[in-house]
């Protein structure tokens, strides 16, 4: 499947960065460095050309994509699956037994893997992966790799890929140095699509919300009431602050997901899933969620804590206004706090940025009419092992549950169960109608997926 076939199947019109990346990667002869802001489609930029150059009929691993975190690895693997190229893939990451991954590697025989550095090195050292046919190496968010101190791990991986011929490095920010992940003697082809001025500010409106107290929870709750059921991310700088804020909002009736590095992998995946499919309209998180999570249609970014530097701010704001959309970002300020200078007078811009006061004094008290998300998630107790497809789920929810196809949101079919996003206002009726019903001739269980944490 060539690049044009993949693009037509996706139904997208590549932007300038993606077009240049496809040309540079498919023509070969250079290592390629791609610098482009968040939300511009860098995952497609490297996956489309690389997918077109892999052999879908071979059982050998041919491409390795290295990423700084497990969430980005999982998300990128899902992007490839959604492209419909026929290529087999896996995400490899810590937090689960290596032996389980090894077993699945033998079963799946992936042609491309998305992996965190430590876990990939582990598989290579144990001989769980045959790297003899790996021709492509992609390093996503190489700037974060540098910040996290992965230089040694990356050098070890490169030394274990004897046949690798093409390297692609990607970043949303311009690192002070291009890391030594490039072959000696090769001048990389640098595709720099970073804005010369802060053009993202043109698509993101900035507001400040004054809190009368140092403890800003009440102000946050009032702001969220005023935003209704819009999709919002609340950023804090510390895990315990996330826990405290999430509990406060939950006790007042908000429907939220919580995300930080102290949660186990199952909790983190579940939280992101329920936020991304609209079951929770608020994500309370640390900056762990500021990079690499491509969740569409996030309308508001809320800085409960001021970002710890300009780079953190850029990545937070990059979660909204994806592609050509618009978004809003809110700074909640205690009496002693001010908007950082890098926001009001960006270093790469000749003009100051407009910051608008946002008045919440007329907002209803947070105990009144808490807005709820539009969707809920249902668990259906059948999956791939039962020969169930997404089409079967749609048919079941329409014929047995009384829904219309257009009302159904994201559907995911796993090995032994499935999830489907459905209208929250029709949830109770749906559960009643599908109780003890059959899907594809098989009796199944249908239940609401809880947001408890």
Secondary structure layout plus pairing:
Blueprint: H1 3-10, H2 16-27, E1 32-35, H3 42-53, E2 63-66, H4 70-82, E3 89-92, H5 98-108, E4 112-115, H6 117-125, E5 136-139, H7 142-147, H8 151-159, E6 166-171, E7 189-192, H9 200-203, E8 204-210, H10 217-227, E9 232-235, H11 239-251, E10 256-259, H12 265-276, E11 282-285, E12 300-303, H13 310-317, E13 327-333, H14 341-344, E14 355-357, E15 375-380, H15 390-399, E16 411-413, E17 418-423, H16 427-434, E18 438-439, E19 442-443, E20 446-448
Parallel strand pairs: 1-6, 1-7, 2-4, 2-5, 3-4, 5-6, 8-13, 8-14, 9-11, 9-12, 10-11, 12-13
Antiparallel strand pairs: 15-17, 15-20, 16-17, 18-19
Task: Describe, in plain words, how this protein is organized in 3D.
- The chain has 453 residues and is α/β, with parallel strands linked by helices.
- It has three domains: 190 residues, P-loop containing nucleotide triphosphate hydrolases (Rossmann fold, 3-Layer(aba) Sandwich); 158 residues, 3-Layer(aba) Sandwich (Rossmann fold), CATH 3.40.50.300; 74 residues, RRM (RNA recognition motif) domain (Alpha-Beta Plaits, 2-Layer Sandwich).
- The protein has 16 helices and 20 strands.
- Strands 3-4-2-5-6-1-7 form a seven-stranded parallel beta sheet, with helices on both faces. A seven-stranded parallel beta sheet has the order 10-11-9-12-13-8-14. It has a four-stranded antiparallel beta sheet with strand order 16-17-15-20, with helices on one face.
- Helix 12 links the parallel strand 10 and strand 11.
- The radius of gyration is 23 Å and the shape is globular.
- The two termini are 44 Å apart.
- The mean pLDDT is 89.
